[in-house]
Amino acid sequence: MAKRNKIKHADSVVEKEPVVEKFVEPYNKYVLIQSLIDSRLIYDGEITGRHYEWSRSGETQQVDEEDAPTLLKKRIGERSCCGENMLGNKVFDVYK
After folding, report:
1. Chain-wide mean pLDDT for the chain?
2. Are β-strands 60-64 and 75-76 bridged in parallel, bridged antiparallel, or unpaired?
3. 0.85 cut: is pTM over it?
4. Which of 3, 47, 56, 63 could form a disulfide with 33 if both were Cys (CB 3.0 to 4.6 A apart)?
5. Is the separation of the CB atoms in 60 and 71 below 8 Å?
C-alpha cells in the first residue's frame, strides 16, 4: 500500500507523490546437479534447507549454489559416513 507524505504549510497541506514500498526477491544462483546413482535420492540442502529429489541415475535438479558443495562431496561405499572420506563412489556431479 502506498503511503502519502504530507507537508504542512501555514494555510494549506501539500501532498507529495506516494512512496511505493517494493519487495525485492533475493537473487539465487543455481547449479545443475546430476545423480550418478540409479536409485531415488532425497536430500534437504544443508545451508538453505531446500528439498531436492532425484528418481534415477542421470536425472538433474537445479540446486542452490550454497547447497551444491555439500551434495558434491557425497559418497557411497568405503565408509563414506565417517568424515570427508573421498574414497567412495560419487553420488552427484555437476551436469555439463
Report:
1. 81
2. unpaired
3. no
4. 63
5. no
